[in-house]
Design brief:
six-stranded parallel sheet, 15 strands, 3 domains, alpha/beta, 434 Repressor (Amino-terminal Domain), homodimer, 37% helix, elongated, Rossmann fold, seven-stranded mixed sheet, Lambda_DNA-bd_dom_sf (chains A, B), HTH_LacI (chains A, B)
């Protein structure tokens, strides 16, 4: 058991067995694969290797032996949120569809870690000190909420995984694929600027995770580039990540009044849900969209806008969820195929497109 | 390797190891779990057990050791059809949703065998003589098309599995969960009879797999019970499973003409798609449904009616797909929990309900 401990919590490899038995990897491989023709191994050595295999709980997988690369060809999918069962209305649906599609294409099985819980019954990667993901060759971790401690431990153990949607929350030593919300927000400001808008308001929400912060940074940098004054309003609760001077408004009606007073011609809402409500309120109040006011939603995760877009008329930034899922699978396969790169990490930001809505138009009186 | 062969292609158990090493299972368990306090095992015996473990390629799974029952808590899902990626428009979607939901509820992971193919690249359970499903504790086989030879082999090997939707195609020694289409069809005839219908026509399709045959048997037996003459018409190609005298009609217009000529007051279509088209055609021709003619679809798989019902007005038999999926998981877990029952099989037929359509009504002039 102490040997097992010495090998750490990483997946036990033939190398670990070789070290414990004080033989070369070739000898371990010979013993494990029963190829007595390639290398002669004495009975004593064989017994020592078998003992090390036992002590370290090295798992020579039956299925793996018939497949190239010694893998099970199993990709895992795990999330801390409730993701299973995943239905078409769920935010994660499209990510998983992309993962599944790419797994199928590349001849891999997909293991949904529906049962991954700790002793307390909470979704967890580690249960009684065992990494439940180990059944899969590698895994994709989906979702916003994470347990940074577990992720760090996973990375330390050298377990191959790729994160979707989160960047630095788990520390630097993690590979990820994410939507490029900063660039998407910049693109929206660029497009609005091109259409003559000079007073562009951003409605920020109360959530402040890193993809939200990215959007705000994208907005700020694009405004700076165009020499525009960044203007933000918030809803309801004070938000520690927003400048203190940010006006706090009660609802969409107040936003419309504020916009009219301040000469705002375009509103970007972090939450697409808010963008939709603003559009509805404008229609009720007889404010022409996009004639008098352009409205764009940034596709905040919380409102599931990708799937449940209440009105396709509203122009929103669309998270390329399916593509992100597929890209994560390919990234994971690259990591599995070149274990030499284990130390390095790979990061990919994918471009978001705007939907074909009708709420983004030229500023009033623009050409 | 000969030992491995002798153990057959079943999952290698501690019992196999015990037999090969000529020791008791308790000794194998002691060696595998390292519990030297429960049973004293000499070094020679331990070496013999380790050798047998190696020869038989017995896999002492790391994850399993921390979980009750020595299982991975992985349920597999396999289909010969293209099932992955499964989207909400697919016929299999609801089955898988039920499977996933029940797996989540019972703390099991779900392994989608997206990559299960043979050397020829065809969906297959066996690849190079290896049962790819073995990575899962047991599996659920979904779908209409099957390879009877593979299923039989799977059953012979004692691999735990449950089939969805197919009954006897793979031989008697298989556990399954299926919709009770015979009872559903009988219920439809009973209901029509109750509403005064005495001339009930059935439109049969060209497909003749067992669930279709069941529907026809249900129709025939219910007609016999009520003393009604069974009346069938077919579309297009001659069908070897249908009485030779069955009239073959060109389309739904001909069905309406035929029904009017023969005094038919209700039509049951094997395919819900045909039921929908018949309803549309009746509307075009001014035939009152259900006033002059009642129309019911039997929910043929081929047309995906469960998900893509083009018009909720049409009354159809709904396959309880989600419940079937969940029931299959529970059946599989029963089989896993009581390996003693390995020889026996379990069969469950689940009741189908009628949808809340409006095309089923009293016969003309009935009370």
């Amino acid at each position: 058991m102490s040997e097992r401990k010495a090998a750490g919590r990483r997946r036990v490899t033939q190398q670990d067995v070789a070290r414990a038995a004080n033989v070369s990897i070739a000898v371990v491989s010979t013993v494990v694969n029963g190829k007595s023709d390639t290398l002669r191994v004495s009975e004593q050595t064989r017994a020592r290797v078998m003992q090390a295999i036992h002590d370290l709980q090295y798992v020579p997988n039956v299925a793996a032996q018939s497949l190239a690369g010694g893998r099970n060809r199993i990709i895992g999918a795990f999330t801390y949120q409730r993701m299973f069962p995943w239905e078409s209305g769920d935010f994660y649906y499209d990510f998983l569809l992309g993962i599944e599609e790419e797994a199928e294409k590349t001849g891999h099985h997909l293991l949904l870690f529906t049962g991954a819980r700790n002793e307390a019954g909470e979704r967890s990667i580690f249960n009684r000190n065992t990494n439940v993901l180990e059944v899969a060759d590698g895994s994709i971790l989906v979702g916003g909420r994470i347990d940074g401690e577990e992720i760090r431990r996973l990375a330390e153990e050298g377990y191959p995984f790729v994160m979707i949607g989160r960047r630095n929350a788990a520390g630097g030593n993690v590979s990820w694929v994410a939507a490029d919300y900063a660039a998407a927000t910049q693109d929206v400001v660029d497009r609005l600027h091109e259409l003559g808008h000079r007073a562009i308001l951003m409605i920020v929400g109360s959530r402040t995770h890193e993809t939200i912060v990215e959007r705000r940074e994208g907005y700020a940098s694009a405004c700076a580039r165009h020499g525009l004054e960044p203007r933000m309003v918030a809803f309801a609760a004070p938000n520690p990540d927003v400048p203190e001077a940010t006006p706090c408004l009660a609802d969409e009606r107040e936003v419309l009044r504020f916009a009219a007073e301040q000469g705002v011609t375009a509103v970007i809402a972090e939450s697409s849900y808010v963008a939709h409500r603003l559009y509805e309120t404008a229609q009720e109040q007889g404010v022409a969209v996009p004639g008098a006011l352009s409205v764009v939603g940034l596709g905040d995760h919380g409102d599931r806008q990708n799937v449940l877009a209440p009105d396709p008329a509203v122009t929103v930034v669309r998270t390329p969820s399916r593509l992100i899922g597929a890209t994560a699978v390919r990234m994971l396969l690259r990591r599995l195929e070149s274990p030499a790169r284990d130390g390095g990490t790979e990061h990919l930001r994918l471009t978001c497109d705007l939907t074909d809505g009708t709420t983004l138009g030229p500023a009033p009186g623009f050409r």
